[in-house]
Amino acid sequence: MGLLRSAARPMTSTQEQTDQRHELEEDLREGFWADPPTLPPRWFYDERGSRLFDRITSLPEYYPTRAEREILQQRSAQILEVTGARSVHELGAGTSAKTRVLLDELTAGGRPATYAPLDISSEVLLETAEQLQSEYPTLAVEPAVADFHHLPPLAGADGERLLLFLGGTIGNFTEDERAGFLRMVRAALAPGDHFLLGADLVKDAARLVAAYDDEVGVTAEFNLNLIDVIDRMTPVTGLRREDFEHEAVWDDEASRIEMRLRAVRDVEADFTGIGRTWQLAKGEHLRTEISRKFDPGELRDELAGHGLQPVAGWTDEAGDFSLTLARVVEHPSVP
């Protein structure tokens, strides 16, 4: 689970709503009639979805946030010392809850610095930016609505930027998507800049499934909210959340969790904006997210191959989660 976001654009406008509808309809065309049907997880994150995800990160079953925070609490000073960063940018920032540990170090002693949270939910983003500006008077907070496919220009001097991609969101990409993302990250940064990547590690399957199917049902509501997002954003009839149930499955061969919406009865929905009818038989599923889990050190070669040379790496005490710090080098070995 993670925060995959929408393309950079002004915070709120009729044009934004129109653009998002067109983007959603394109993703529906590409994914809903595939086998199995899928939809990119960025569509989870309307305002309600973003707040539900924030609740998920506090659930006892959902260990990644606690594990990542533990690493940041222990290593933030070292991260900033190694990087020399004065400009921190965060993809999928959400409420920036974990990042405050790093911001405390960044602004220690009243030093001026910049923090640029990037997220799809303009409401959550603006609210968080206002809170951060109040909490950190010497911090220039520069929020932007952005996704992981079209990064806006990143402010700051060359060699002083630190780009954060936390929460294990790298696991939401397929292998090809991951390669494309790393190429984009390398292109957005200059030699001497740094990239901090959070990744969830392989562990007992029961713990993994529980993290995506909590006892009180917050994750189920988060998943089902996707149906409400689709219904609100594009003209459709016959698509009802009560026709689906949440499901989380561990795929050992692919080393990933799959989040699904399984049809509890036959579904037939007319997408009038697309001009197509979508059918899903009882028992079939819509795949809403993949979440790949990695072996320790598995991503280091991928990073290095894209001009992001690992310089340090850490796990939490339990070995559940990892952070890898990479430095942007002059000549990546993969274009």
TrEMBL record:
One Pfam family it belongs to: Methyltransf_33
Assigned keywords, A-Z: Methyltransferase, Transferase
What is a biological process (GO) this protein takes part in?
methylation
Enzyme Commission number, as recorded: 2.1.1.44
According to its UniProt record, this protein's enzyme class is transferase
Domain Histidine-specific methyltransferase SAM-dependent as annotated: residue spans: 25-327
Entry's InterPro entries?
A: EgtD (IPR035094), EgtD_Methyltrsf_superfamily (IPR051128), MeTrfase_dom (IPR019257), MeTrfase_EgtD-like (IPR017804), SAM-dependent_MTases_sf (IPR029063)
User: What are the protein's GO molecular function terms?
Assistant: L-histidine N(alpha)-methyltransferase activity
Gene3D superfamilies in UniProt: Vaccinia Virus protein VP39
Location of the region described as Disordered in the Swiss-Prot/TrEMBL record: 1-25
**PANTHER family on file:** ERGOTHIONEINE BIOSYNTHESIS PROTEIN 1
Question: Which NCBIfam families does this entry report, sorted A to Z?
Answer: egtD_ergothio (TIGR03438)
This one is known as L-histidine N(Alpha)-methyltransferase
Organism for this UniProt entry: Janibacter limosus
